[in-house]
Structures are given as C-alpha cells and as structure tokens.
Amino acid sequence: MNSLGINKPKKETKVVVAMSGGVDSSVVAALMKQEGYDVTGITLKLYDDTKQSKEGRQCCAGQDIMDAKRVSEKININHEILYYQKKFRSEVIDSFIDSYAAGETPIPCVQCNQTVKFRDLFKYAKDLKADALVTGHYVSRIQKNGHANMYRAKDYNRDQSYFLFSTTQEQLDYLRFPLGEIEKHETRTLAKKLNLNVAEKPDSQDICFVPNGDYSSVIKKFRPESFKKGRIIDLNGKQIGEHEGIINYTIGQRKGIKISSSNPLYVVNINADENTVIVGGKENLEIKEIQLRELNILASKKEFEDPNEIKVVSDLDGNALYFSRGAIPSNAKYQDPYQKFKQVCVIPFRRAALSWFYKTEQTFLETVESIDMLRFLESGRKVLLIKTDVVSYAVDTDADLENVRLKMAKDPLLDETKILASTLTSVAN
Predict the structure, then answer these.
(1) Which residue of 43, 93, 152, 411 lies most exposed, with the fewest beta carbons within 10 A?
(2) Where in the chain is the domain with CATH 3.40.50.620?
C-alpha cells in the first residue's frame, strides 16, 4: 500500500493533480513527483480576463495558468489545460447571478467544486485512467470501513471542508488531499525548499471572476435589469428609504444602507418577489430555525445496494412507510445525492405487540423481503423511526462475522472487560 492508500507501486500509480497556479497545488504536484508517482498536472481555464488575473488576487486565468505551466516544467511532469469557460459560465457564473437576484448570498466556490472541478475534472481524470485526483485543498481525508471520510484540516484557519460539502462518496474515495495534515506556513516552507517560482505568490482571495470584490459590476454586465429600484422598509412594513437594486444587499449587512437612524440598522430580510429590503435592529438578526437544501450525506453506494443492509423510508411524522433490502428511494429518476437511511435493528417492543406478533401469520411482503417488521406495516400498525448516529453491524454472512470480530478486537470496552475479569479472578484466588 503506497502513501496514497493505493495498492500499487508508486511508479505504477497514475495521479492527476489539479493545478490552479497557486502555491498549494504547486507544492502538491511537486510532492507527488518527488515521491515517485506518475503525475499529470491539469489546469482549468475558467474565464477570459488576463488583465484582472494579473492585477487581482484570483485564480484560474492568465498569469495563473502560466505559473502552473512553469511549475510543471520545473518538476518535469506532463501538463494540460482544459478550456472550461462555457461550463464555468453556465454552471457557476449564471448560478451566482441567479442567487443574488433571488435575494440570496451565494458562495460560487462551492458551486465550482460541485460542478467543473469534482464532476467534469473528476470524469476527465477517470478517462485518463488515473488512480487518484489530487488537490491542494486543506481537508483531512481519513479511511474508515473501506471508505473515505471528510474532516476538518489540521490548520483550522485554512480549512476548506465547508467548500467541499457537496463532494459525493464516489468522488471522495477517488480524491486525495496531501495538505490536510499540515499547516499553511509549512506549505510555504516546502515551496521554498523545492525552489518553486510561486513560493511567495499571494493567496487568491477574491472570487475568480469578480475583480476586486466588486460583484455588482459582474451582475450589471450580465443582468442589468437586476438593478431595479425598490423600497427599503422597517419591520412594520413602513417605507423608510429606497434602494438601487436588491443585489447590493445581503442579510446581516450594516454598511451601505444609507438611512439615518438613532440605532444602527441591519438588513434582516430580502423579499425578491416584492423587490424590497427589510431592515431592523441587531437583535432582529437572531433566528431560531434555518432551512437547508442540497444536503449531501456521504454514504457508501455499495452499502446502499447491499441486500444485507435493510433500507427504510418514513413519512413526514417519522413513521415507517416501508422496509426493503433493495435500494430505496430508487436512483432511477434522481441521480443527485440525497439522504438515505438504514435500519439499525435496535427495536423496543411493547409486550402486547410481541404477543400479537407471535400469534399472527407471516404476511406476503414480509415473506418477499424477509423482513419481519413488514408484518406490522401490512397489518396497519405503526412503526416509529428515530434517527440515530449509532451504527449497528448485522451478522448474516461469514464476511460479516469476520468484520465484527475485527471491530471487537479493537474495542476498548472489550479490553476493559478482560482486565476486570483478570482482576476478579485474582481476587477470587
């Protein structure tokens, strides 16, 4: 097993390194080459603005591409440029503008990772028959139970796990993040030792297609109609001012409201349908609930399809709708990641329920699925499901038995039991 966790000699392990032209990805490429891997560096050209790239602190254009090329030549690896401008425009820039027009505050880096980087670049690396896609993100990747898990980086100030929340299990199993266990200053030191031309290059901080943080100019360029004037109102619905377009505001904003008040005013809400900005005091920013969308639950596809793992779906009140050994809900019409649940077989029964179960014959679905809980559902009884983070391990096959034995061997409670038994024996003697 090599340092990337791949069961191949390093020289026979082909890796693709995503090279942005910055110090982080450059160091990763150099380290992979130094360790003896077969390395191909790939840089994405995402937008056309060389001038901005030179003047700003951005990535993925003009000067950055040249820097990536120079590093590749320095460390003697193959280097390719993928021209993804059209993909980037449709998947990232348009989405960014749509979000602002809807009164939201988007994070385009998340969208970029979700689409052009970890979807399109991922596919390209696979097409090259690469064994892994390696990036310079500060993310910890830890292998457990045969699959990769994502954790915060060692350097909390540089941690990028949030920006990679949409990474699928399939992608994470394929990805590698060598910088996850070191700090940024160590990366800079490595770059100097490796004599890379980007060792002192400033980090990219601006959104790559937004020069100097002026996102409104980008929106005005593509969607001038978004700058429609509208009302600024207080929490009682009274107009107290006028705005030049809701895209100039974000929830929590204080500066730029331009309304005189005895107490500081903050943007507490944006109503895109009515083209209004709602302002209030700082105390009005407090919330007790949030709404989430586009959740990504990292789970094993193999586990989801394993007939020995019982899958379950519920109604909105948490009552079981069905138990199955097949994959439910089906992936047939919905390919994006979504939350999936399995039964962990920790089931408390009322005495009357057990008595009823004992006296009742097997039902059809129970027989088909070989899941006794279906007898309750077919008979019109309710089964309440409670979400838990506890993982249980069924023993249905020889492989299951061996897996549980290995886990028990590492269980600290088992060791404590042995110690206690030994102590009691000694006392008894």
Answers:
(1) 411
(2) 10-212
